[in-house]
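Much of what follows relies on a compact textual record of a protein's fold. With that in mind, consider the following protein and its fold in token form.
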Amino acid sequence: MNKKKNTIMLPALIGAVLVAVILIVGTIIMGRAANEDTKKAVNSVSLLYLDELAGRREEVVANTLSNNIEKMYVAIGLMDEEDLSDMKHLQAYQARMKKLYDLEKFAFVDSNGLIYTSLGTQTDIDEYQFDYNRLVEPEISIKNIDSDEKKVIIAVPVDDIPFNGETLVVCFMEINMDSMLEGVSLKSDNNSTTFVNIYTRDGVALTNMILGGLASEDNLLQAMGNADYKSEYSYDKFLEDFKNGNKGVVSFTYNGTEETLSYVPIDGTDWMLTYLIRESVITDEISSVSKSIITRSLIQSILTALVLFAMFALIIMQTRKNAALAIEKETSEAESKIKHEELEHRLELQEQLLEQEKRRAQQDSMITALATDYRSVYYVNLDSDECICYRSEVTPE
């Protein structure tokens, strides 16, 4: 019986353990697979939308610059002969244009390189990147590019305008960089997962922030040279695209952070607009959700395993109880059978004794009846049913 119970309990216990292991291990494996799929999905979505997002933001920047160029032509068109009559009237006109368009500076340059502003003249033409003697179309450049006080310079050629015996050849406006970038909303989102920036093709950031503030280098190209690229991307390809003003996208890991960068040239400039998605932040947030799901699934699996163990325990207990009842029943039946056999044996013995007594009574009766016949002598065998009679002719006295 013990052997039979063991053959039932052992498979049940092994089955419960296997089910519990399958539930827990399966949950962990599925959770990890889901996490990897999430990372791939995030990267796919990033590549799918980055190009469009960067393109739209580039249009905003290009339109803003184009509008400023149009404003300059409008301002020049508003200038009349009185504004050119003397320095005082010219400066008054320039002050009105500064206030109208919220500019840092609205100036003219003559053929000798002398700058005319609303505050007077300047001789620092070398600080500006445009060539005033060869400018034939609007040109956008950066002043103080190596400092934190960068200025956007939009210069346009003008028809030779005589003034005070000189000829004005260029008109330019100077805009504070922060003001211009604020106007085109080059700000990161509240979750610090996406960053928009503008760089020169040499990798200088116009916002003084490299890779969303994560990089320690002062130049994008230097920072990207220290990144680890995914298999289908390379630093050489990125560098070639960036310097040649070609649009593209690249995925990489910088200081342990996974990122995807889309870059597109800004029309009319030598700038590159970049749209950065910090995939690690997104995947971490999604992973935290996945971990919560995995944790809940593990708890559910453990609870399921405990319920299974409880069920198997109840089954085993019931099996033991049934086995005990079966043993008790078998024992009771065996005892009843033994008692019944003993009773039958006793009844058989009693019948034999009664039979013997009956025979003896019959023999005694026969002896008594025949003893009165004096002519016969009887020999009775008490151990059998025989009764032998010998006749005798003796006459009684």
User: Anything to note?
Assistant: The helical segments are 2-78, 87-101, 177-183, 220-225, 235-244, 279-370. Residues 279-370 form the longest helix (92 residues). The mean pLDDT is 79. The chain has six helices and 13 strands.
